[in-house]
Design goal:
By secondary structure, the chain is α+β, with helices and mostly antiparallel strands. It contains 16 helices and 24 strands. It is 34% helix and 19% strand.
Length: 492
């Protein structure tokens, strides 16, 4: 489609020719316009936007990537604390399905995929007692409810209630779509509150009642039906999983993934990356920027947060400390906190130098601790002291104030979950800096509605975001290839 000023110019030229007696074009002289490369606008330069842009470019589309901030990557970011470059967001990824590892391999970083230390994590119970997490489980769901390590956390009564799962018919709870309801019906509240909530919450940053079972644990409900119990289903899924850790990382930091993605996009001649470009309105054929500029395209993909909806902010407090007692990793790779646990405000602690060998080498005689908070004080000084005090309790060692050599804060907004009616509508507007939304009334009626990707629709976690973004990109490429007047560029 020609821009408006181009159409006007062509019309004027034809009019001038007619005025001087030019011969009118006959059907024999006319020819169909050459098909053109489709132009897709991607709003948001976080992980979902980068993956989508790369897939579309590799599929033969032209892409304009718009990012409101001054950098790409979104929540996959880095910061430097006491001279050590660290992940400021995600520091590991789920190995299930091989989704993330496949992308890392495509980007040439496969040799840098590393497993965490085998020490395992601990759990601070509601009573304030720290215990090793049961090893034979999935998202905190035990495969052996009467195992000693399970009884130690949920109590004998809670473990006996969970064991009753084996006496229930397979269909009980199997229709429940959220993880919390499934566990509550099959194994009871003790397992849900004391095991699944802290474990699943630490991974996905929301309560199990907000997690879709089929997203966070594919095939679990089917396995409950076929095996007749939740415990047996967990065991089946664990046995089917490839050997190795449930999570992995990247030597040097997970943030290297977005660096590699950005590099792979920027070298493509069909890509245009615009930073500091705030989008104030979106419709199926284009976007409007904060300065009033209009950018038109053949399709729009929104990979940024959209309203309405609400999410939970997570604040990460990073401490770099010198403490000889921590060299032995007294609480393994970190400690999860059961809801209502006394004596701490943090929801989890990662002993990063105990978890990742590459980081231990980089830190030398220092230890890196990362604590997460749903509610954090505004003052950095107060948060630093809170994190130090919480780390003492969670790790069971004394950490004098002078042992803390550096501190950093990073706050991330949780995914804002829209009402089902909004998601089903198919037409969205973009979030402005104030969080407001501008959406045309007829956006949902368009034959090619705005596409949304990102953790609000995919679920949280790198694997979920990447899997969803790649699938939606493939569908969009198929759609673009079928439209009259468009053609995808051949692979270079």
């Amino acid at each position: 489609m020609l821009p408006a000023d181009g159409v006007a110019a062509v019309g004027a030229a034809l009019s001038d020719q007619a005025a001087v007696g030019a011969v009118a074009m006959t059907p024999e002289h006319r020819s169909a316009p050459e098909p053109r490369i489709p132009h897709v606008i991607v709003v948001g330069g976080g992980l979902a936007g980068l993956v989508t842009a790369r897939e579309l470019l590799n599929g033969g589309a032209r892409v304009t990537l718009l990012e409101a901030s001054s950098r790409l990557g979104g929540k996959v970011a880095s910061h430097t604390v006491d001279g050590i470059r660290l992940d400021a967001g995600a520091e590991s990824f789920a190995t299930r399905g091989g989704t993330v590892a496949a992308l890392i391999t495509e980007l040439g970083l496969s040799d840098d995929i590393v497993p965490p230390a085998a020490a395992g994590a601990w759990l601070l119970s509601r009573t304030g007692k720290a215990l090793p997490l049961p090893k034979a489980g999935l998202l905190g769901i035990p495969s052996v409810p009467l195992a000693r390590d399970v009884i130690a956390i949920v109590g004998l009564v809670g473990a006996v209630r969970a064991q009753l799962d084996g006496l229930l018919l397979g269909f009980v709870g199997a229709r429940e779509r959220n993880l919390g309801s499934l566990v509550r019906k099959r194994m009871g509240r003790a397992v849900l509150d004391r095991l699944v909530t802290p474990v699943a919450g630490a991974i996905h940053s929301v309560h199990p009642d907000q997690l879709d079972v089929d997203v966070v644990a594919p095939r679990l409900r089917d396995a409950v039906l076929s095996r007749g119990s939740l415990a047996a289903a967990v065991l089946t899924l664990r046995e089917a999983a490839p050997a190795g850790a449930a999570v992995q990382g990247i030597s040097g930091g997970v943030f290297r993934l977005v660096d590699a993605l950005a590099d792979s996009i920027s070298v493509n001649a069909a890509a245009d990356i615009l930073l500091r470009s705030t989008v104030t309105a979106v419709d199926p054929t284009g976007v409007t920027l904060g300065d009033g500029q209009r950018i038109d395209g053949d399709h729009v993909v929104v990979a940024a947060e959209l309203g309405p909806g609400s999410g939970v902010n997570i604040t990460l407090a990073t401490l770099v400390v010198r403490c000889a007692e921590l060299a032995s990793a007294p609480r393994g790779t970190g400690v999860l906190v059961a809801p209502g646990a006394v004596g701490v405000q943090a929801k989890a602690l990662t002993h990063a130098t105990a978890k990742w060998a590459w980081l231990a080498d980089a830190a030398e005689d220092r230890q890196v601790l990362r604590l997460s908070y749903e509610t954090a004080p505004d003052s950095d000084d107060v948060l630093r002291e809170q994190a130090r005090a919480d780390a003492e309790v969670l790790l069971g060692v004394k950490l004098p104030a002078e042992s803390v050599v550096a501190f950093a804060r990073q706050t991330w907004a949780g995914p804002r979950r829209a009402a089902p009616s909004v998601v089903a509508a198919g037409g969205f507007g973009a979030q402005t800096e104030s969080g407001e939304l501008s959406t045309p009334a007829d956006a949902s009626d368009a034959s090619h509605p705005v596409l949304e990707v990102g953790e609000r629709v995919s679920g949280t976690g790198l694997a979920a975001v990447i899997r969803h973004s790649r699938a939606e990109s493939e569908n969009l490429l198929t759609d673009l290839a079928s439209r009259p007047g468009l053609r995808l560029a051949p692979p270079s």
